[in-house]
């Protein structure tokens, strides 16, 4: 390795001794530039770059520490490594030199040629490492600033997008409400009334999901809002909605008569879980197939649990995909490209179940169907935290977004 060193010493004999020691370095080739005063050193450094500087403390006029202080004022793009030489072992001089920026300090009468070479090499390596670390820090700061700017742009785009998305929803809601008022009473059949109600509720639900999406993209995640919730009543309501919207499928609700299925849960979070699981069953099942929703009660480990299982007769999940079914952006290899999906719904559903202290599991056979089972503790949660940052997909006329197979 070839290195340039500026030797600042007013003694001719010392300059020759140092030059000979560096010329015999077996590991590095040193280009020695000798000067005899601090003023000459500053003039040279102002116009030339060097890797290191061997600096005699006792110089005529300006001493070595003063030279280092002046050197700092030059604002050089690359400050050289500095080893200070002196004819005495004064500790105060050593401390002042190190504070002024020197990497090492040698007493002339005490060091050997090998010690000199080792000191210079170490000083150069230290400065190079410090310089690299500083460059990395600056790159990291620039990358962080760029990331913050990108996030700001993203948040602005999301705000505009969500605003534009809510506009059509408001039009749908207003038109459905107008139709309710304008259709004559005699012509308003129960089925029509139900469908108009579904439109209004779906539009409101979509608006809530859009607001939630905007919140989580900004990192404004809300905590679970626990309250007594009758899971059976929620399931009944979702089954009725899907029976109206997905009329090509048969739905079966299997729940023991007289059993209590209430617990301290977040209604909005579990509604998203249920929409994902039931919507998946509809989306990936053939027409005239059956979707079964089962509710069961269970006790174990001193706790009471409610189990919710959604079973379909659809395409099933390949065995190779089962270990990854709850990973974000993963979709089964047997899913047609014509079937829409983002691959985030099941990951979000599992996260919300886990925040309740529960579990979400799957059992599936390709070509026969799948069963997703939610196990929720009724009482004190085993885990707590914010609603996950991955927003659940919105319900569509054929059911909510499917994230797996």
From TrEMBL:
PANTHER family the UniProt entry points to: HYBRID SIGNAL TRANSDUCTION HISTIDINE KINASE C, TWO-COMPONENT HISTIDINE KINASE
Major enzyme class: transferase
Keywords: Kinase, Phosphoprotein, Transferase
The Response regulatory domain, residue ranges: 4-123
PROSITE patterns: HIS_KIN, RESPONSE_REGULATORY
Biased composition (Pro residues): 388-398
Protein name: histidine kinase
Residues modified to 4-aspartylphosphate: 56
MF-aspect GO terms: phosphorelay sensor kinase activity
Renumbered residue ranges of the record's region Disordered: 383-405
Organism for this UniProt entry: Corallococcus aberystwythensis
């Amino acid at each position: 390795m070839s290195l340039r060193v500026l030797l600042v010493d007013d003694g001719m004999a010392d300059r020759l001794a140092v030059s000979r020691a560096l010329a015999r370095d077996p590991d590095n080739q040193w280009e020695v530039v000798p000067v005899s005063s601090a003023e000459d050193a500053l003039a040279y450094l102002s116009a030339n770059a060097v890797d290191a500087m061997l600096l005699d403390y006792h110089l005529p006029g300006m001493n070595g520490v003063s030279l280092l202080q002046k050197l700092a004022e030059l604002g050089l793009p690359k400050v050289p490594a500095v080893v200070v030489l002196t004819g005495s072992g004064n500790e105060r001089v050593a401390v002042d030199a190190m504070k002024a920026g020197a990497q090492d300090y040698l007493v002339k009468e005490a060091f050997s040629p090998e010690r000199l070479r080792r000191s210079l090499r170490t000083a150069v390596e230290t400065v190079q490492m410090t310089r690299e670390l500083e460059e990395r820090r600056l790159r990291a700061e620039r990358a962080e600033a760029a990331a913050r700017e990108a996030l700001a742009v993203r948040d602005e785009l999301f705000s505009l997008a969500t605003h534009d998305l809510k506009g059509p929803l408001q039009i749908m809601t207003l038109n459905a409400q107008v139709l309710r008022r304008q259709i004559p009473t005699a012509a308003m059949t129960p089925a029509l009334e139900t469908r108009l109600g579904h439109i209004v509720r779906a539009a409101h639900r979509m608006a809530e999901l859009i607001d939630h999406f905007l919140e989580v993209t900004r990192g404004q995640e809300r905590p679970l809002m626990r309250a007594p919730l009758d899971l059976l009543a929620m399931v009944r309501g979702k089954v009725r909605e899907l029976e109206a919207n997905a009329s090509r499928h048969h739905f079966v609700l299997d729940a023991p008569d007289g059993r209590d299925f209430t617990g301290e849960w977040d209604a909005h979070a579990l509604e998203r879980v249920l929409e994902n699981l039931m919507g998946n069953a509809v989306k990936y099942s053939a027409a005239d197939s059956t979707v079964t929703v089962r509710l069961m009660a269970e006790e174990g480990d001193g706790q009471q649990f409610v189990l919710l299982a959604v079973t379909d007769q659809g395409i099933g999940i390949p065995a190779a995909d089962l270990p990854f079914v709850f990973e974000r952006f993963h979709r089964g290899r047997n899913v047609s490209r014509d079937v829409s999906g983002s691959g985030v719904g099941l990951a979000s559903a599992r996260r919300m179940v886990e925040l309740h202290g529960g579990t979400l599991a799957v059992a599936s056979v390709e070509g026969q169907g799948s069963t997703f089972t939610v196990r929720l503790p009724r009482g004190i949660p085993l885990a707590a935290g914010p609603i996950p940052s991955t927003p659940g997909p919105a319900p569509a006329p054929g059911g909510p977004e499917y994230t797996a197979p």
